[in-house]
Amino acid sequence: MDDLRNETTRTRLFWMMLAIGFVLLAAIPGNAEPERTAWEPLFRGIEHATGHATEPRLQAINALRVDLHEPSIEFIATPSNGEDPGETLRRTGRRFVEEFEVQVAVNTHFIDIHANVGRNAVLHGVSVSQGELVSELEELPHGGASLLITKDNEARFERTIPGFDLDGVWTALESWPLFIVDGQNLGDPTTRSIHPRTAIGLSEDKRYLIIITIDGRQPGYSEGATFQETAQWLIDFGAYEGMNLDGGGSTHLWIDCPDEGPRPLNTPSENRAVGSHLGIYAPPLEPATDNQ
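Below the sequence we write its predicted structure tokens.
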């Protein structure tokens, strides 16, 4: 009889300890899933969404989806500075928005920091602004890829080297090789540097141009991302192909709303003047009609 009572006690203790273990396990915080909001109209043909993550670190993301089938959408890249030294004039996001009266401005090219003269910049890779060649085709030492857009807003990524035919290209910007190909994340997992990031991509049907910024260097708010994490965020927002753009203190995404004026959509770590922007012209949203 005593053996039976002892066995029953041991069984009860076993199940009690198991239950306590489950409770304690549930109380341990796991890896929180990244969050992404739904697309919300910002301008005609342009929608905005945000992302947020706490793991592997704090990340705040802003994303734009540009409908290339919307006929009112137009693009402009930073134009040539003419006969002045270098190729372009460096501008802040606010200055670019105000000077060219665009609704969206995002930083793009890396620049040759050893060739800058004052506010003038020399860009890495080809740049075309409204059909004008701003920066020549070149063989970048790391390879490279270019986003090419026609005047009719047909967009594609290409490898552009000297001799490439730019006929029909209205807008072009070049950066490192694609880190998203056929929907696959090719971001180098061994590159662990964490910085603010800017990236751009196209949907599989090439209807949508997707732009993201990831804020960084701001403890308690957003700490930045690796290349691989940046590529994954771009995929999560709908990109099938995509590339990383200049980042760090250059990362900024500005908009100009009719009722607010120019303002940064993200929270830049610096107010840096950059050598190249991609600007987008878009009409305001049509006012909602009251059918009641």
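The first strand starts at residue 35 and ends at 36.
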